[in-house]
Specification:
Elements lengths: L1 E8 L2 H10 L3 E15 L4 H4 L3 E7 L2 E7 L9 E3 L1 E6 L2 H10 L3 E15 L2 E8 L2 E7 L2 H10 L7 E2 L3 H45 L1
């Protein structure tokens, strides 16, 4: 059972220095992740708040199943099952044969640290920078306080939801700007036509 929470941060370097001062050990310096999510055509996994993810880190690939989250205000609590795969391309073909299709993907940079029983990740993504902590609830609250945060700073929304919202907002803004540009172009064209017509009458 995975218990985790996130906190949005402004300065990754400052938080990293605080973590190191508190005795955190760096297990893996910043590396890039590629996360790909799959679902059936009827969207049954999404409807049940479950997730099937392929995560690619360098030459390694991991398949993760995440169960439905349990109710919690401050933490994301859900079953997580994960295995390492030996052949990324072949497994993608297997998923396709089973009727699963890719529904979303995103990339992020991550640094992995550990403080006693707490797994700590520093993330840089489309949604911004976050510190993600995983472990016992009491340990997460304690470490957050040591960093100057409280429960009110905890974020349980996952990266998929945050990034989807940002991409949809950007797409909406882009569409709105395109419509505005098209309208202005049409208006300018109409004005030019009127001027041209006026000039024609004056010369005649």
């Amino acid at each position: 059972m995975e218990i985790e929470t996130k906190i949005k941060i402004e300065n990754l370097k400052a938080i990293k220095e605080k973590l190191l001062a508190l005795g955190c050990q760096v297990e893996k310096d910043f590396y890039r992740e590629w996360n790909i999510f799959y679902d059936f055509p009827d969207g049954r996994l999404t409807k049940n708040k479950q997730a099937l993810r392929l995560r690619v880190i360098g030459k390694k690939t991991f398949l993760t199943f995440k169960g439905q989250p349990l109710k919690s205000r401050s933490f994301k609590i859900r079953e997580e099952l994960e295995i390492e795969l030996k052949n990324f391309k072949t497994f993608k073909k297997i998923l396709k044969k089973l009727g699963l299709k890719q529904i979303f993907e995103y990339r992020k940079k991550r640094m992995l640290l550990r403080k006693d029983r707490v797994k700590v990740c520093l993330d840089e993504s489309e949604a911004g920078c976050f510190i993600e902590m995983e472990g016992k609830r009491s340990d997460l609250v304690r470490l957050a306080r040591q960093l100057g945060f409280s429960r009110k700073d905890f974020v349980t929304t996952d990266y998929v939801q945050m990034i989807k919202a940002i991409r949809e907002q950007n797409h909406s803004s882009s569409s709105s700007n395109s419509s505005s540009d098209s309208s202005n172009s049409s208006s300018n064209s109409s004005s030019s036509s009127s001027v041209s017509s006026s000039d024609s009458k004056s010369s005649s």
